[in-house]
């Protein structure tokens, strides 16, 4: 499987939610709530991404005492990858904001 | 006894979307999927409902099943049936599709491709083996090898067509 280089939006949202231990449904619910329903992650996408993040050791199984609701958490590597992507996204936003400001002046 | 009827599949690798749309239309008329049946679905008559169907392909380990199903049920999807690593779900028509982004959708077809390529590969090797056998043998053995060759070939050709169809789906998504 291909290594995640630039995080897709879905992966970014899920990793952001897993900065604290959460199970799959809690992640989906948090994303939906935070984005006021504009971003919905489907369960098959969610499951695929969780498996991929586990395989790449960006998250780890935090608690599997409830087999229906296993919780996951970012690993140290996951935190680093997420931080790098935040910086990448900040540059994008800054570029856009500066561009719009210049236009107004 | 509830009324049931059979609906043939167009072949999931070729027409997954068409199959799902057909099942949606059937549900509007009161016919709901009960289970997979040989090359198709068994439908059961009941209340008219506006439900949509989505399918996933995935090999699940025993200890993964519960969590997998929980993801779907908490997102509003009801598990209908599973067979040969295919899992069919249904939900009210305004529910978010089970695949919401392109990357994971591409991976869905990669997984399906792997399953089918494996089968097609085994069949291809078997047909080549029978073919060679029919050349080097004589008499009764030759006849048996020939029958074997055509028998396996009859399965190999559709398997390879299916593999090609999945590859095409994957390619179309990536563009």
Condensed summary:
Chain A has four helices and three strands; from the N terminus they run H-E-H-H-E-E-H.
**What general outline of chain B do the C-alpha atoms trace?**
elongated
Low-confidence stretches of chain A: none
The portion of residues forming beta strands of chain B comes to 15-25%
The total of beta strands of chain B comes to 6
CATH class label of chain A: Mainly Alpha
Distance between the termini of chain A: 48 Å
* H/E topology pattern of chain A: HEHHEEH
Mind telling me which CATH architecture of chain A this is?
Orthogonal Bundle
Reported for the largest beta sheet of chain A, the result is:
3 strands, antiparallel
In the residues of chain A, how many domains can be counted?
Answer: 1
Radius of gyration of chain B: 20 Å
Radius of gyration of chain A, whole Å: 16 Å
Biggest β-sheet: strands ordered side by side in the sheet of chain A: 1-3-2
Count of separate DSSP helical elements of chain B: 4
Protein described:
The complex is a heterodimer of chains A (105) and B (175). Chain A is built from four helices and three strands. By secondary structure, chain A is mainly α. In chain A, strands 1-3-2 form a three-stranded antiparallel beta sheet. In chain A, strand 2 and strand 3 (71-74) form a beta hairpin. Chain A has a single domain (9-104), classed as Winged helix-like DNA-binding domain superfamily/Winged helix DNA-binding domain (Arc Repressor Mutant, subunit A, Orthogonal Bundle), CATH 1.10.10. Chain A is elongated. Chain B has 175 residues and is of the alpha+beta class. Chain B folds into two domains: 4-92, no CATH class; 102-174. Chain B has a three-stranded antiparallel beta sheet, with helices on one face. A three-stranded antiparallel beta sheet of chain B has the order 4-6-5, sandwiched between helices. In chain B, a hairpin with a 2-residue loop joins strand 2 and strand 3 (40-45). The longest helix of chain B has 36 residues, at 139-174. The A-B interface holds A 1, 8-11, 24-25, 28, 40-49, 52, 67-70 and B 54, 56, 58, 63, 66-72, 74-75, 77, 96-101, 103-105, 107-108. Chain A: GO terms for molecular function: DNA-binding transcription factor activity. Chain A: This is Transcriptional regulator PadR-like family protein. Chain A: Residues 1-105 form the HTH marR-type domain.
